[in-house]
Amino acid sequence: MFRALKQDSTDRRGEHAGDVDKAPTAAVDAARATARSSREASLVLAFPAPHTAEPIHQTPPAAVAAPARLARWRTAIEGWCEGRDLAPDLAVDIGSARWLRGLATMLGLGAAAIALCPDFTAVDVASAMPLDTAAGDEFRSQSIAPLALGGDSGRRMGATPLVRPLANVPERPLIQMVSTFGSGDSLARMLGRAGLGAADIAQVSGLVGGVVPADGITPGTQFDIALGKRPAAGAPRALEALAFRARFDLDLSIERKGGALALERHPIRVDETPLRIRGTVGSSLYRSARNAGAPVAAIQSYLRALDKYVSLESDLGAKDQFDIIVAYKRSAKGEKQVGDLLYAGVERGGKPSLQLVRWGGEGGMFPATAVGQARSVPIGQPVAGRVTSPYGARRHPILGYVRMHAGIDFGARYGSPIYAVADGTVAFAGRHGGHGNYVRLRHGGGLDTGYGHMSRIAVSGGTRVRAGQVIGYVGSTGLSTGPHLHFEAYRGGRTINPAGIAVTQRPQIDGRERDAFKARLRALMGVAPGAALASIAESGAEADMPRREIDKLAD
Prior knowledge:
Helix content is about 25%, strand content about 30%. By secondary structure, the chain is an alpha+beta fold.
């Protein structure tokens, strides 16, 4: 440790006693006064030396004053920097003295960083040790080569005289595989990929073609194939057995018996009871039908059928009942197949409000009212949407002045289908001034309807259309501010209000088909909900049939 020593007159009086005696008294007194004032003004730091006889060295005054000056300078610089904001926010007070000071600081620091950054001179290193072929092979044998390069690293033992090459390799006596019939594939190509010879392919194609047409095999059908031994060296293997699902109700198998291939049919019992699903519409018809177990495809067909006759947004109440019947097949092996929509109904208050039945070769949905006498019925809504502008005088959104709006505008999504509101003939189909793409239908009795602003027209002039048939798609052609349908009605060539008009509806099913249609409707109404989901037991013959390997994997 350091300690402070205060020098006084007694410390050095003995050292200079002789000199003091020899000096004049006045000079001695002046010198002593000067030394005393100097000693009182400063302190001297010294190491303690209790056990040494050496004299204590005094620090020079200049060495003590230098750190003090540095401390004063540092304090002054810190005080100046504290009073000057050298790094202000350059996004504030642009152009001011404070901003220029910050810019100078940034440029200075950047210049210092650039000046002090190292260069990109290449560093000299020792060159790699050259490897000859033997050393390279040794290093490679001790590495692990990736599989992409063959994975052929590692040490190997050389063959000894005890290792003898095989003259031939014995083949497996039987190979079993599963081959899939692809889209656009043919039976011959699929069998060729499996390894069958040309003779076996021709026999199998002939046997299968007698039961299933060439294009009757569904893509994705899986074939169980068993190949036996080769009849000769280098020849393709002989087919031992083949089995596949030819139809939903039929399995086919081919086996080699007595050297020849024989076909066997295995019929599968199928239940075709339609699937009927009923429920309450609730807040969402789609979600309610899905919760009731209806397939997605059946719900979509049901909504499309209803959309031609009622508005799904305004005409259906939360307490209404939906009724869906779809074609449904079940096999004794457990497979299920959902078919087309057979019936679409809506009940209100326990009574049928709308009944649609699939009928005819074209598979159209006909209402139960299609049979009977001609009667006057209100027209349906031509598009799935809402009324955005009624019939009457209004300020035109584009022209800017008030004029007669001779129709009703339905707001709908771009590309939504537009339906004919009644049976009729296409009187005009094409471009029609401010209407844009326009179709006009003539329904008879002096009543016409017009459909404007279509994005695309789906009918041509002179053709006959039915109620609910798609005649075009919603667009925004002509004088239009957005996608919508402008729907007009004409009586005797003059426009009338389309709301509330009625048309004479003639029966779509004549007397020859009337009884069959009614019988079909009664049969569908007799289907109990959920009857198609009852268990179907296999018959004795089906239970004794050998199961395919692919069917075992499905379990």
